[in-house]
Fold:
Amino acid sequence: MKNMNTQRAQVEVSIDGEDVLSGKSLIVEPNSEIELERFVENLSKGNRFRFIQKTQKIIEHRGDKIDDGFIRVVVRFEKVVKTVHWKLIRQHFPPITHPGVYFSRGSLDDATLKGDTSEINCFQSVNAGETLERSVIPKEDEGITVKGSESQQQFRVGWIGQLEDVSHVIILRLRGTKGDGMWIETPVTVKTKLQCPTCGTKSKSSAKFCRECR
Structure:
């Protein structure tokens, strides 16, 4: 996860509908990145993520969840604290010689008042997603994430300021092989050009249809 924003980000991660951070959240500093390689059941060590093929035996034992193979990332950025500048006017009151009050020209003193900078704990609970079952044979490229070898990746408790009301959600789907049964050797990223199987035209990864064939 790479935060290219100027604000700190709070990140929640779930895989196969399971909160892999155990109710906690990650803090990603501005213009920095972090690699999450394991389940965070404690801060010192834990099991790595391991993606395996989903078999009929696995379905019969644990069920077939509708969000198997999906990674869900929820991001909320820290609010920008605005600084408000106030000018306080100090007025001088001359002696009252007759009814009425006279004000002389006062001096200006600058004072800076900052907005609310109260901090909240970045560790928040995440509700697990609902699961659905189906009695079908899994496809060859379907998989689930299980606990692998032990990882010594360490984390520490941190704090983050008040968060924005808007959250951003990223959904990734993991597949083991392509439709023709061949293993995927090169990852498909947002910079990958899609090639039309009919005419060979290359398009952006976000394109749903070939611009030449549609």
Summary: The radius of gyration is 28 Å. The chain is about 5% helix and 35% strand.
